[in-house]
Structure formats: C-alpha cells, structure tokens
Write a structure and sequence with these properties.
Elements lengths: L3 E4 L1 H14 L13 E4 L14 H10 L2 E12 L3 E12 L2 H21 L7 E16 L2 E19 L3 H11 L3 E8 L3 H26 L2 E11 L9 E2 L4 E2 L3 H9 L8 E15 L1
Antiparallel strand pairs: 1-2, 3-11, 4-6, 4-7, 5-6, 7-9, 7-10, 8-11
Helix pairs in contact: 3-4, 4-6
C-alpha cells in the first residue's frame, strides 16, 4: 500500500520570509533539522499514494473472460403407448344417405373402442369431409355420380399390448383405412430431464478442457440456453398405414402387422456460457 510524504520544513521557510518582509528588524534562520512526516495507509505499509484506474481495468478484463460451449445428449426409452388415426369412408349417390352411412359406421367403431376399455377422453373425431364425385365422359363434360364422406378418428393413450387388437377389431367394426400409428413414451418428460442433466455435465467437461488448455479455470455459469424442445420427438411413426377399403383383404392385412415399437431417442441440446479466471 502507499503513503503520502509531507515535508514541513518548507512551510517554516515560507513563514520566515513573510515575517522578514513585514518586519525587517526580525531575522529568521533555517532550522537545523527538517521534519519529514510519513503518512501511512490503512495497512500501515509505507509508500507513495498512487491513484488511477489501471488496477480496476485489469479486474474488469479478467471478469470478462468467458467460454461458450454447446452440448447435446440423448436418452433412449422404450415406447409404452400408441396413437392410432383411423379413417371411415362411405359413398352414396345421395349426399344425405352418404352422411348417414358414415355416422352409423362411426357409432359402431366408437362402441367397439369403448367396449375395449378405451376412455372417452382418449377418442377424438379429428376431421370431416363430404365431397362430390364426378365422371368425365369427354367433350369437357362433368357428370355428378355421387358423394364420398371421410371421417378421421384419433385414439390416444393406447397401451402397446393393445395396439394389434384395436387395429384388427376396428377394421371389423367398419374402419376403411388405418391412416397412421405412432408410438410414444409416457415418461417422455422425465427422460428429457435426464438428457438435459447429462448435457450440462458434458458442457462443463468441455469448458474445463478448453479452460485448462488456455491456462484458466472455470468458475460460474453465466447463462444457459436450451435449444427448442423437440416436441415432435414425442411420437415415433411406426410406418403402419393401410388402405382397407376391401374388408376381407383388410383383416388379413392387419393380422400380418408386427407391432414392434423398438426404442425411441430423446435428445436435449444446450449452450452454456462460463466465467473464466486465471489459474
């Protein structure tokens, strides 16, 4: 630390000169001893006081040292649930009759699903469409020949062990097409949290390796940015999609389906900024 040095002899000389000017008869003489006063700082260390911002500037520069790393980890889980999208298609020359047929078939399929223990909250009628059907005999003519109505029915939260049975039984109840079957894990959120934790561990290891190579050490986490949670990753497409307009062929087709979910990968990706300090 630093101290101020104050010379008191100078003030004595100045006072003597002033007295001499005001009263010529008074004579002054230089003292034999000059008193030097040393002013210490709070720690008692001797030294000259120094001001400036160099020290604080170095501290700020050290605090601004950072390293940014990106890490991604994947957790594999076995799907235990499925989502099935059925399609019911009816045709008739009369639009009202076509709609009535579709409604009756839909009711039969819903009754079957409820008999199998599927809860009403897991069943959703997701889409309706009624379209005219035309023939084109030529010469630019268009002839209306009837109507076609499609209804989509989405069934969620189906246990994996029940998927095959619901595919076959729904076809017997009147389903015209299996539009999609996808799998998902009921523990997706927990698995994603594990992937996040593993990604954080990887990020710290990477940051420490970089810091060590640069002669620094990792201290605080300044920020963490999570990449968009891939919600679409909740569902894995099974690849099962069948046009079942011919019922006899449909039942054989469904019976041959192998419901094997395998594993699904749940990935988490983050970007982390760490503070660095010299070692």
């Amino acid at each position: 630390m630093k101290k101020n040095v104050i010379l008191t002899a100078g003030s004595v000389i100045c006072a003597g000169m002033i007295l001499a000017a005001c009263a010529p008869q008074v004579t002054t003489s230089m003292p034999d001893v000059l008193t030097v006063q040393v002013v210490g700082n709070e720690t008692g260390e001797a030294g000259l006081e120094q001001t400036g911002t160099a020290g604080s500037g170095q501290t700020d520069a050290a605090e601004m040292r950072t390293v940014t790393v990106t890490a991604a980890e994947t957790v594999k889980v076995a799907p235990d649930m499925a989502r099935i999208i059925y399609e019911i298609t009816t045709e008739d020359k009369d639009a009202e009759v076509c709609q009535q047929k579709n409604s009756e078939t839909l009711d039969a399929v819903l009754a079957y699903l409820k008999d199998q223990g599927v809860e009403e909250k897991s069943i959703q009628t997701s889409d309706f469409s009624l379209n005219p059907q035309y023939e084109y005999p030529g010469n630019g003519r268009q002839v209306l020949v009837g109507y076609e109505m499609d209804t989509q029915l989405t069934v969620s939260d189906v246990p994996m062990e029940q998927v095959g049975e619901l595919l076959t039984g729904a076809v017997s109840a009147g389903v015209s097409r299996i539009q999609d079957v996808s799998y998902y894990a009921s523990g997706y959120d927990e698995a994603y949290d594990r992937a996040l934790a593993l990604a954080m561990e990887m990020a710290k290891e990477k940051a420490e390796s970089i810091a060590h190579a640069g002669g620094c050490q990792v201290t605080d986490v300044l920020s963490v940015t999570e990449s968009a949670d891939r919600q679409s990753g909740r569902y894995v497409d099974s690849g099962i999609s069948r046009n079942l307009m011919a019922k006899a062929a449909a039942e054989d087709s469904v019976a041959e389906m192998a419901v094997m979910a395998g594993e699904m990968e749940i990935e988490a990706e983050i970007t982390v900024v760490y503070r660095l300090l010299p070692r």
